[in-house]
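debug: dumping io for the single-chain case to check the tokenizer round-trip. Nothing else runs in this session.
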Amino acid sequence: MEDTIPQKGSSLVPLSPDYIVGLVDGEGSFTFRLDLNPKRRNRMEPRFYLKLRAEDKILLDALQQFFDCGAVYIQRDRRPHHSMCYRYEVGKQKDLREKIIPFFRKFPLKSPSKQRDFRAFCEAIDIVFAGEHFTNEGIEKLAALKEHMH
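debug: decoded output
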């Protein structure tokens, strides 16, 4: 991972781990979707994401380059007085386990609520990695974790 972000029409400028931590503390989210439909396999879909106004998209592109994973998507909001936004999202479990989680373990989040969500997110990823999400006990653990996340 390089410690740089691109600027339009210029060379790369430094992007520090502390800046990334601050950005994620303020605008990021660690979450997962739990699908309990009995007609489907038990599924847990983890997501790490940040959403910013369109004018700040360059920061999301920089995060994608920094972590070398994920994608940046447009996220339209048609409500009055809401601007167009972009979202940087990582959902691939391998990237979450090998890039995102190790980064935030090395450079911890500062806000207590984000720390709590990150710990629960890591625990959920561990449950899935161990294959426990195919058991009733594993699903109960995931549901309990999800209940306490923001």
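debug: round-trip ok. The chain has five helices and six strands.
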